[in-house]
């Protein structure tokens, strides 16, 4: 069974700092890996999708990398802003199912 | 675009009652999913559907039922509500099953 872990569970950084969120998974037989953002009381918003054959994807200040063989992904956020405060979840797709991590709660302090 | 719409947003049930959580999407997506999210936990898949008339169990299907009579709608039914089913329920859809999922805003369900 696929297990997805995210470390740290919570992170607090001053505005402007670059930061890295980590995601690890136990079964490397994945179709893709996705990063989501969840604001309080809201559903999830897709940020980046990395296909299993890719190494990284970029969108604005966000960069996600994937090392399938080691079962790891990172989400890099450059020049963090208070508006980035949210919970970030990663999910891996195996078969027809998505397996989610428990998320990293990020607080960016002005 | 409405995207994925869930109703109701909040509900309180008594133990043993039943209810249906509604989910509708207007993107003509074939794949639809139901998740539950407990405090401090990730999302757990309850049921999913790859098209009208086709459903399958996820990780935590016990106590729930689904149907998919149309592409747009994917209701989730709780037959005999139990306190362990207190959670936030999310519905999601995607076009091909491996593309980004679109989520609704969730239904917050408390069972007392």
Give an overview in words.
The complex is a heterodimer of chains A (110) and B (112). Chain A has no helices and 11 strands. With 110 residues, chain A is mainly β. In chain A, strands 2, 4, 5, 9, 10 and 11 form a 6-stranded mixed sheet that branches. Chain A has a 5-stranded antiparallel sheet with strand order 1-3-8-7-6, with no helix packed on it. With 112 residues, chain B is mainly beta. Chain B contains no helices and 11 strands. In chain B, strands 2, 4, 5, 6, 9, 10 and 11 form a 7-stranded mixed sheet that branches. In chain B, strands 1-3-8-7 form a 4-stranded antiparallel sheet, with no helix packed on it. In chain B, a hairpin with a 2-residue loop joins β5 and β6. The termini of chain B are far apart.
Q: In DSSP terms, counting alpha (H) and pi (I) runs of 4 or more, how many helices of chain A?
A: 0
Integer-rounded radius of gyration of chain A = 13 Å
Would you tell me the structural class of the helices and strands of chain B? mainly beta
Question: Would you identify the regions of chain B where 5 or more consecutive residues have pLDDT less than 50?
Answer: none
Count of helical regions of chain B: 0
What's the order of the H and E elements of chain A?
EEEEEEEEEEE
What is the structural class of chain A?
mainly beta
Judging from the principal axes of the Cα atoms, what is the shape of chain B? globular
Largest sheet of chain A: 6 strands, mixed
Number of strands of chain B: 11
Strand percent estimate of chain A: over 45%
Helix and strand pattern of chain B:
EEEEEEEEEEE
Helix content of chain B: under 10%
Q: First CA to last CA of chain A: what distance?
A: 41 Å
């Amino acid at each position: 069974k696929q297990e997805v872990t995210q470390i740290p569970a919570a992170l607090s950084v001053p505005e402007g700092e670059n930061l890295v969120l980590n995601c690890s998974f136990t079964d490397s037989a994945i179709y893709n890996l996705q990063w989501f953002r969840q604001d309080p009381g809201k559903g999830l918003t897709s940020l980046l999708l990395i296909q299993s054959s890719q190494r990284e994807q970029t969108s604005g200040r966000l960069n996600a990398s994937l090392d399938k063989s080691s079962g790891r992904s990172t989400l890099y956020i450059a020049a963090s802003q208070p508006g980035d405060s949210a919970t970030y979840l990663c999910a891996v797709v195996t078969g027809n199912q998505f397996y989610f991590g428990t998320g990293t709660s990020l607080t960016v302090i002005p | 675009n409405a995207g994925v719409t869930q109703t109701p947003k909040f509900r309180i049930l008594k133990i043993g009652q039943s209810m249906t959580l509604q989910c509708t999407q207007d993107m003509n997506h074939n794949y639809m999913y139901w998740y539950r999210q407990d405090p401090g936990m990730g999302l757990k898949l309850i049921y999913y559907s790859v098209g009208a008339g086709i459903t399958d169990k996820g990780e935590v299907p016990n106590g729930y039922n689904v149907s998919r009579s149309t592409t747009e709608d994917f209701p989730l039914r709780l037959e005999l509500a139990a306190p362990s089913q207190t959670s936030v329920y999310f519905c999601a859809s995607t076009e091909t099953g491996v593309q980004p999922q679109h989520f609704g805003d969730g239904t917050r369900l408390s069972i007392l």
